[in-house]
Amino acid sequence: MEKFYKKRLSASSDTGVYFSELVELLEGHELKEQILEQIDYESYKDQFITVPGAKALVNAQKIINKRFKKEDLIHKINETSIYKDEVFTINFPNLASSPYLSNIMKNGALQTEPIYSSQRDFFAELYGMDKYAGNLIKNGQRNIVEYNVNAIQTIVDKKKKFRILHDLSDDTFYLRAITSSGNYFNYDNNITIVVALFALHNEMLENNISYSLSKCEYNESFIRIFFRSNAIKKLKDIGHINYLVEISNDEIKREALKFSGICSIMFGKNDEKEIFIQPKEIKSKVFSIKHNQTPENAIKELTNFSKIEEVHDNITNDILKIVTIKNPDQIRHLVKTKVENALNQDIKAYKFDILNELKNHIDTVVKLLDTFHKIELLAGEDINAIEYIRYIFYQSLIERR
Questions:
Q1: Are 346 and 382 in contact (CB under 8 A)?
Q2: Burial 237-275 (b: 16+ CB within 10 A, else e)
Q3: What is the DSSP string of 344-365?
Q4: Are strands 81-84 and 222-235 parallel, antiparallel or unpaired?
Q5: What does the pLDDT look like over 271-317, one tens digit per residue?
Q6: pTM for the structure as a whole
Q7: Do residues 29 and 190 lie in contact, with contact meaning Cβ atoms separated by under 8 Å?
Q8: Are 328 and 341 in contact (CB under 8 A)?
């Protein structure tokens, strides 16, 4: 399920989108009125957002919205059950907190398949038995798992918020995540796109700069959008440095919306090839919005957008150092060693092919970048693997460690 729904959206030929079309993403959203009030929508509603690719981005999210219904169910941990026949599921007999689920589940019970980290999170709530239970499930020890869960549930009495994902295409239900039942504002991917394009629109109005969609990596609950600016810098004997804004969101994690500054290196004939230079968060982060912030405070964070120029300057200074690399093959060897020793599960499926790309001697920086470009393509649409690969590149190419 997880890998199947990961997608990538490339730059599009459209010229942008009207605000009136953009806010269609908020239809039915519980925060719609608050968000529109905070961005002063009435002053913008007839304006056109001149960000090429913006319309394709909005349309892609509309397809997601049409396919998936997301519902938060408040439920007691000790009232859940597990398993359907021999398949591990997490089941909810009490749907009273969700009129939507109560209405479609006529027998009053819901069976869900846990995806992403939700199985681990569920067992973590039961006195941290997540690793133990995971190994038992993997080895088919249903009776032992149920015995432990039933015993621990007698001493666990707390409510949590369970994010249920209803795939309307085949009428299946998934448990996406478990969150606190306390103060939580649902800054989802719809709000991410609205806020992102609103921020870019204002930045373009106030400064002599333009943006276009470079690409978007997304699934039903996660999004990472790259907007390319028209500013570039020459990278001697290699190509150009391009400046991008990365706007990302995991609908569940503490930081709902994150604005970052990153750069890419364009190289090859007519700069047709590109690799992203993505440092650690502390160096690339411009600002973030958390799920416990009110819409009023969340939109105020957008005033920090101006910090992106400083972030880009710092990353540019790092990139300019690569022209001084005297032995590119040392960098190849460093990346090869990191991949060989990587314990990260996201990269595991690509190790053999990556190491195959790294087997030959490299004598120029351009050939080194070309190899990095080929390696990133190997990960296809696997968002997590791509992110890890980019981090390895930055460590090896820039920090050289």
A1: yes
A2: ebbebbbbbbbbbbbbeebbbbbbbbbbbbbeeeeebbb
A3: -HHHHTTHHHHHHHTSS---SH
A4: unpaired
A5: 999 999 888 887 899 999 998 899 999 999 999 999 999 999 999 99
A6: 0.89
A7: yes
A8: no
- By the 10 Å C-beta count (0-12 exposed, 13-18 middle, 19+ buried), 321 is classed as exposed
**Separation of alpha carbons 61 and 72, rounded Å:** 20
**DSSP conformation class of 321:** G
Helix (H) or strand (E) run with residue 59 in it = helix 54-67
Task: Residue 388: name the closest of 356, 320, 318, 341 by CA.
Answer: 341
Side chain identity at 280, as an amino acid letter?
K
Distance CA 46, CA 24 (A): 14
H or E element in which residue 274 lies: strand 273-277
**Angle 34-102-185 (CA atoms, 0-180°, nearest 5)?**
25
The tens digit of pLDDT for each residue in 135-177 reads 999 999 999 999 999 999 999 988 999 999 999 999 999 999 9
Do the beta carbons of residue 214 and residue 57 sit within 8 Å? no
CA distances 189 to 23, 50, 372, Å, are 12, 21, 30
Q: Identify the H or E element spanning 36.
A: helix 32-38
Number of DSSP helices (H) and strands (E) in the chain, helices first = 16, 15
Rounded distance, CA 241 to CA 223, Å? 24
Question: Three-state DSSP class for 239?
Answer: strand
Determine the pLDDT at residue 1.
Answer: 45
Cα separation, 279 vs 294, in Å, equals 29
* Confidence band for 212, pLDDT divided at 50, 70 and 90: very high
**Residue 45 gets which letter from DSSP?**
T
Q: How far is CA 22 from the centre of its chain?
A: 20
Give the three-class secondary structure for 95: coil
What is the rounded distance in angstroms from the CA atom of residue 3 to the CA atom of residue 108? 31
**pLDDT per position as a tens digit, 39-70:** 999 999 999 999 999 999 999 999 999 999 99
Residues 6+ apart with CB under 8 A from 125: 77, 156, 158, 160, 178
Q: Distance (Å, rounded) from C-alpha 46 to C-alpha 155?
A: 57
CA distance 381 to 9: 10
| Type of residue at 58 | V
Helix, strand or coil for residue 379?
coil
pLDDT at 310: 95
